[in-house]
Design goal:
- The termini are far apart.
- Helix 1 packs antiparallel against helix 2.
- By secondary structure, this protein is mainly alpha-helical.
- A three-stranded mixed sheet has the order 2-1-3.
- The chain has one domain.
- Helices cover 42% and strands 10% of the residues.
Length: 125
């Protein structure tokens, strides 16, 4: 029923406060190199998750260059952001983690080192 759909109160308003945000689909497409890097990152996240999630790690903590704070991403959010980057050229909008326990997250560098350690151990067998 169309009567039940809420109407945008700022429809056709030249002073719409959301106009400063820009359109969500105005993202520039990724370059071939950026797309390849995002695909590699997604593959890395899959490996990190498969090895670290059974150890109780919930995801990764990343330093944000824009705000200077750490952001905590669970595995599914990381996957979703990377897939959206690959498909649409921009990460998805998401809510930040609510009071994450930093002990449940590791850095990208830690995850990479852990994977390298597992690979080295397997190669020595």
């Amino acid at each position: 029923m169309l009567e039940d759909v809420p109407r945008d109160p700022f429809a056709d308003d030249p002073n719409d406060p959301s106009s400063a945000m820009g359109a969500l689909d105005d993202a520039e497409p990724l370059t071939a190199q950026e797309r390849d890097e995002a695909i590699t990152d997604l593959a890395d996240v899959e490996v990190f998750c498969s090895l670290l999630e059974p150890q109780g790690v919930l995801g990764l903590v990343l330093d944000c260059p824009e705000c200077g704070e750490q952001h905590f991403f669970d595995w599914e959010l990381l996957r979703g952001n990377l897939r959206q980057m690959i498909e649409k050229g921009q990460p998805q909008v998401h809510e930040p983690a609510f009071h994450p326990d930093p002990a449940d997250y590791v850095t990208w560098e830690y995850a990479r080192g852990y994977v390298d350690g597992v690979i080295d151990t397997e190669e020595r067998r």
